[in-house]
Amino acid sequence: MRTRAKSPDQNGVRERAFGSLKYEHLYRLEIDDLDTLAREAEHYRHVFNHVRPHETLAGHWPIEVYHTPTLHPQLSDRDH
What is the mean pLDDT of the segment spanning 44-61? Predict the structure, then answer.
């Protein structure tokens, strides 16, 4: 996946997600092959987006904010 040129804010979001993947999930497992790595990364992607609440999203899941952008705290603050 690529980020837009001259968009460091996108890269930071990606790096944070990769850090969560590694420290919250992958480093806790024994992974012996690429198939297992791919399966576990996909599993964590689902957890990250659909199960795990995010403090920066006011406790919402990313999928909720994607479908209802007004749930995003930064967007809500602009309206008031």
Answer: 93
Query: Which single residue is written with the structure tokens 């199960």?
Result: 51
Would you say residue 10 has pLDDT above 90?
A: no
Q: With the C-alpha atoms ordered 53, 56, 59, 61, is the resulting torsion angle positive or negative? A: negative
Q: How far is CA 77 from the centre of its chain?
A: 22
Angle formed by the axes of helices 34-50 and 8-24, to 10°?
110
**Domain locations in the chain as residue ranges:** 8-79
Contact yes or no for 25/37 (Cβ under 8 A): no
Does residue 58 carry a pLDDT above 70?
yes
Enter the pTM of the model.
0.69
Which of 6, 21, 15 is CA-nearest to residue 52? 21
